[in-house]
Design brief:
about 35% helix, mainly alpha, two-stranded antiparallel sheet, about 80 residues, about 5% strand, binds zinc ion
Length: about 80
Amino acid sequence: MTISEETRDLWKKVKDNSSVLKSCAVHNFGRVEIKSILVDPKLKCTLCGGEMRVMVISHYVDGYRAAGGKIKDIIDSPFFGEDR
Ligand SMILES: [Zn+2]
């Protein structure tokens, strides 16, 4: 089986994005208006430039909050709820 150049390019983008995301201490996606999660849009971190899908960010926010962090440190959007 051979891998197409398109697949190889896509895999490189995925790995590059993953490396960028791992280099960032705490992502910040700024003020975001999310109208629907049906399309699960990608958002770009204002600090590292890495991209994450909203549903992945949702899990990231949950983990950050569980560790005592504030949602607003990561994203400013009513979609993710309020800090307690
Ligand atoms: Zn980041």
